[in-house]
Every structure is written in C-alpha cells, then in structure tokens.
Amino acid sequence: MGARWRYLANEVAIGLRRNLLMTLATVVTVTVSLALLGAGMLVQLQVDKAQRVLYGEVEISIFLLDSISADQRTSLEQDLSDTGLVQEIIYVSKEQAYRDVQEIFAGDETILESVTPEILPASFRVKLDDPQQFEVVASQFQAYPGVEEVVDQREVLDKFFRIMNALRNGAVAVALLQLFAAAALISNTIRITAFARREQTGIMKLVGATNWYIRLPFILEGITAGIVGALAAGGLLWLGEATLVSRLKGEVNFIPFITTADVWRVIPVLVLLGAGLAAVAAFLSLRRFLDV
Amino acid sequence: MIRLDSVTKTYRNQVTALRDISVEITKGEFVFLVGASGSGKSTFIKLLLKDEDPDRGEVYVAGKRLNGMKSWRVPTLRRDLGCVFQDFKLLENKTVTENVGFALEVIGKPRQTIVRTVPEVLELVGLRHKAKAYPGELSGGEQQRVSIARAFVNRPRILLCDEPTGNLDPTTSVGIMKLLDRINRTGTTLVMATHDQHIVDSMRRRVIELDEGALIRDQTRGVYGYGG
Ligand SMILES: Nc1ncnc2c1ncn2[C@@H]1O[C@H](COP(=O)(O)OP(=O)(O)O)[C@@H](O)[C@H]1O
Ligand SMILES: [Mg+2]
C-alpha cells in the first residue's frame, strides 16, 4: 500500500510540474468559470432572499398614519373588501411589522439595532384578484383618511429583479462557456501527459497493471487542478462578498443581503463541480489518448 | 499452457498475418517461432498477450480462454506472462533496480517484497553489480538482461520473447540464450520468436515455422531450416 501511494503522489506531482504552464492555464480557467458560476448562484440566492421579503404574497401595501383612528381603520378595511377587487386583506400592526423585520434580518445586527416598533408604520397588505387593477385601488385609497401611502411593490421590484436575473443568466452563460474551455484544457493536458508517459504506460500494461491503476494519476492530476481552481474561485467569491456586498449592506438597508454563510454554502458545490468536471474530462480523454 | 485452435488474424489493412494456425505448447516447453520477417511471429506473440484479438479461432493461455475475455481481466492474464522485446523497453530515467521494481510496484506488490525480490532476480541475470546504473550506461546485452529480469521478477508461468537477440551481436546473444535456457529450466514455459539461425540450430529445441502466416513446420529438437 505504501509503495502504491508514493507512486501516485509522485506521478501526480511530476505530471503537474511537467506541464506547469498548461496546469496554470487550466487552474485559472477553472477558477474564472467556477467564480462566475458561483456568482450566478449567489445572485440567485440574493434574488430569492429579496423576493421572499419584498414580494411575499402581497401586491399592495397600504401604509397607515400613526394617527389613524379605529373607526377609520375598520371602514377602510370594509371599503377595501367592498371594491370586489380584493382577494385577501391582512392587517399588519406596528408590532407585527417589527417582528417581521426581526425575523427577516435575523443575524444582521446593524439593521436590527436601528429599528424600533415606533418607526415602522402599520399597514394593510392587500392581495388583488388581478394585480393589474392596482391603479384603480391606488387612486381610490390614496386620499383615504388615515392612509399615508399606497405602494405597489411589483413595479419597482420587477425592474430590479429583471436586472438581477439578467446578471445571473449572463454569469451562468459565460461560466458554462468557460467550463467547456476548462474541460478542453484538461483534456489537452492529459493528451500531452499521456504522450510523455507512453513508454511507461506501455510497460505498465505489459506487466499487468490494472486499467484503473494506469488511469488514476491522470485523473487525480485533473481533479487536483479542478479542486484548486474551485477553491480559488471560492476565495474570489468570499472576497467579493466581503467587499462589494458588505458595502451595499451599509447603504441599502431595506432588503436582506447574502452573507458569508451563503458563500460557504456555495463553495462545496463549486469544489464538487470542479472535481467532477475534471474527472469526467480526464476519463473521457483517457479513453482516446491512452486506450485504457 | 498455450493452445491455438484454427486461429486466423487479419489486420485492418487486410493483411492476413496468421492463417488457420493450430498449435499446442505444454508446460515447461522451450519453443522457437521462426520465419522470415513479416511471417507473423510478432502477431503470434501479440495474440498470446491479448494485445491483438484473432478474427477466427480460439486462443488459450495459462488456463484462460482469451476470446471474449473482459478487458478488466487482461491484467490478471498478463501477470502470468513475462515478455521481452528486441528494443528492451526500459525507462531511461530509472535505475536498473527501479526498472525491475517498477513491474512489481504497479501491480501493487508491497514494498518489502520488492526490496527482497529485485536483488534476487538481478543476481539471477548477473547484474547485481549494476543495480544502481541507468540503462544508458549499460551495453545492449546488459540492457536485455535487465529487461529479462523485469519480465521474470514476478515469476510468470510463461515467458514470451520477441527477437530478444535481434539487436545484439552473436557473442552477447549466446549469453542471453544461456540465461533464457536457465529460466526455462526453472519450469517456465518459453516461447521465443527469432530469425537467428545459429541460435536455433545450436539449441535444438522445438521449432515452429511460419511462412506468410501459415504454419509450415512443427518439429521437436528442430533446426532453423531444412538442410540448414
Ligand atoms: N498493427 C498492424 N497493422 C497492420 N498490419 C500489421 C500490423 N502488425 C503487423 N502487420 C503485418 O502483418 C504481417 C506479419 O507481421 P509480424 O507479425 O510483425 O511478422 P514478424 O514478426 O514475423 O516479422 C506483416 O505483413 C505486417 O506488415
Ligand atoms: Mg516481429
């Protein structure tokens, strides 16, 4: 067993060193592609988070003045349901709004500290049968006594989410292209290595080394490049989160942002992808170049 | 130990290298495979190694039927076989010891076994004193001895040699033949392709002669050709 592992470690080290430039190119390509892919995944997580908060089930929020009387509130609710356009009305008290914020921004101390129940308005969350009817409802209730503002969250949000989705799709598309390039580079590295080792491989076949034994150094070489690339990509994402997103967090505090924990969740996926892609690329090119 | 039943081998370029060959070689035999260049000797050996597959007929080696043998079983077959070639096939960047040990290492033999067996086999081929030399520092005959040591280190039941003296001068060849004879006497079945008339004539062993892929002679204690 000892001899076998020493042999493997040796072969992998020799192989990686012999093609230092190719290896470097491979690792960089894997890094770029997985960083983009990871960025796409984080954008998706970000969209999910924001959507959960901002859309919810609700299409219209009618924010109430603190000065609204109980009678005004009851008649407002009554008139809302009398329009016949409304599917559901939920009253969110100031306390409930505060609890929601606490839940949504759990762990985000800076936001939580700056929020108190007093500064949050009570509201009606109104779900319309037909969201297109917003204008009708808005014009009817905008000037209603005790109403501060009628807000349709969709319009603003749709634009925002369209941009986010485009960003995600772009990142994923480029990432997939890059992954192809990475697979091609891995395949090429293996072709070179297989050629450099053809004598040795021939002897190994002759003396009865198993196919897997012959393949393993090549595949491990690919996987090593894949994993190193994935970890580097993870590092880039972590850096991005720590600088970019953290700064955004300081400036935009009405939506929750992805956290370092989310980056940590993405990294294992990237490592698996990097290693898996490399292993598959290596395996397929071995059949071509090594005939094992 | 080795049996071919009506074996025909045609390469993809339509060259028929072996035609309807039937032959049986029993345990411990020493067999010369003779014939002009291109007569099919190397193809014969490649079939035994399952490096090539026959188009028709059956091949049995070391108790195994090679036809339809799954590729993952081939390594097991090859561990029963040793092979020696005209061009030695040594790794230039490894020492004699490492070259021989490599054959054991890559089939997963433990370190202790390798350390113990390699010097023994080097002793057998008379190269104990060159254990640390690199192939480039050895004569052709010495390199062939290393190659034989590597083929024999795992104690195969069959040793296949394809023109092992093809690159050597007559004197050196005699030494190699003595070594192969010694190995054969340990009970190892030995098949040797050659077109070296002197060697065949001096050894007086079984001779199988091929001519354009056909078996034209199978003679115990034979010579290279009729009437010399
Ligand atoms: N891989 C191959 N592809 C096509 N033809 C081959 C191949 N190997 C050998 N041959 C042909 O088969 C015939 C027998 O070759 P070979 O077995 O090498 O003979 P020998 O070893 O007796 O010289 C020759 O005509 C040779 O050209
Ligand atoms: Mg030949």
Can you lay out the helices and strands and say which pair or pack?
The complex is a heterodimer of chains A (about 290) and B (about 230).
Chain A: H1 2-18, H2 20-54, E1 60-64, H3 70-82, E2 86-92, H4 94-104, H5 109-114, E3 123-128, H6 134-141, E4 147-152, H7 153-196, H8 198-207, H9 211-251, H10 260-289
Helix pairs in contact in A: 1-9, 2-7, 2-9, 2-10, 7-10, 9-10
Chain B: E1 2-10, E2 16-25, E3 30-34, H1 41-48, E4 56-61, E5 64-65, H2 74-79, E6 81-85, H3 96-105, H4 111-125, H5 140-152, E7 158-162, H6 170-185, E8 189-193, H7 197-203, E9 206-211, E10 214-219
Parallel strand pairs in B: 3-8, 3-9, 6-7, 7-8
Antiparallel strand pairs in B: 1-2, 1-4, 4-5, 9-10
Helix pairs in contact in B: 3-4, 3-5, 4-5, 5-6
Magnesium ion binds near residues 41, 42 and 162 of chain B.
Description of the structure:
The complex is a heterodimer of chains A (292) and B (228). Chain A has 292 residues and is of the alpha+beta class. Chain A folds into two domains: 2-54 and 158-289, no CATH class; 59-152, 2-Layer Sandwich (Alpha-Beta Plaits). Chain A is built from ten helices and four strands. Chain A has helices at 2-18, 20-54, 70-82, 94-104, 109-114, 134-141, 153-196, 198-207, 211-251, 260-289, and strands at residues 60-64, 86-92, 123-128, 147-152. Chain A is elongated. The model of chain A has no long low-confidence stretch (mean pLDDT 83). Chain B is α/β, with parallel strands linked by helices and 228 residues long. Chain B has helices at residues 41-48, 74-79, 96-105, 111-125, 140-152, 170-185, 197-203; strands spanning 2-10, 16-25, 30-34, 56-61, 64-65, 81-85, 158-162, 189-193, 206-211, 214-219. In chain B, the strands form two sheets. A six-stranded mixed β-sheet of chain B has the order 6-7-8-3-9-10, sandwiched between helices. Chain B has a four-stranded antiparallel β-sheet with strand order 2-1-4-5, covered by helices on one side. The longest helix of chain B has 16 residues, at 170-185. Chain B starts with a strand and ends in a 9-residue tail after the last strand. Chain A binds chain B through residues 1-4, 7, 199-200, 202-211, 213-214, and chain B through 49, 71-72, 74-79, 81, 83, 89, 91, 102-103, 105-111, 114, 150, 154. The complex binds adenosine-5'-diphosphate (ADP) and magnesium ion.
